[in-house]
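Work Package 3 (structural annotation) set out to generate three-dimensional models for the target panel prioritized at the project kickoff. During this period the team completed the workflow that converts sequence records into discrete structure tokens, so that structures can be stored uniformly alongside our sequence database. As a representative example, we reproduce one entry of 259 residues exactly as it appears in the project archive.
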Amino acid sequence: MTSTSRVASLMVALSFGVASVAAAQATAPASSAAAPAAAVKNSPWSVEVGLGFDNSISGNINSSGIGHLQGQAAAITKNTYESVYGTGLHLRFGGGYKLDDTLEVRATFSFQSLDADLAPMGDLGVSRLYAQYDDYQDFTLDVGLRRYHRRSPRVQTYGEATIGVGFINDLNVQFVAPGANLANYNSDFYDQTAAFAVGGNVGVLFETSPRVGVFGQLGVRWVSGMSAVDDLQGTGLETINDKSARWTVPFLVGVRVGF
């Protein structure tokens, strides 16, 4: 089972969990269901778990360049994160502490693992050049502030700003040019990286009970570039991996539980 399949399975499990919570609320005693949310004394602590998509809207896994590989002229074309890795699923979990009824401090962990597609890389001599990247994995910690605004007894909207650091695995690339007799030319491309990240999100929280709710949110996020390896030194292609910062639009759905 691929990492994408495993995460998709988790999304299905989460959906069943949300349905179970809703069913439990529907069968609760009428007196309990009718009780206003404000009547229950809640702890300021909460936890969240969710699954979502992380759609890249800008940023290149490699830039363009002209040089040579193994004595042959090479013309490299750029590849975006989206073209190599697609739109990736990510798993997110974390917790928060409410400073008052509307303001919450949050810390969130995210995990993402993406399979790489074979990517066209340009030309080498008279042959087309292709690249196979390693799979992309990152583990991220974000902290930030969230502001809630109550729209109805059970519905709240919120906005949040986050700052964090993501730990990204090292990435190698394998070049292949069948017509130029170049096969399995391995290059260290990026070292393991601690990338800086900033973002903002807006969302809606629907409270299925005084302590349990389901939410959906949409945001924008910037991630700094990865640590480039100069494995192509002397080829004229040294700069094709030095502009890897990117912007993404993450979408997330999940469950929030208060204490």
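The chain has one domain: 3-31+45-258.
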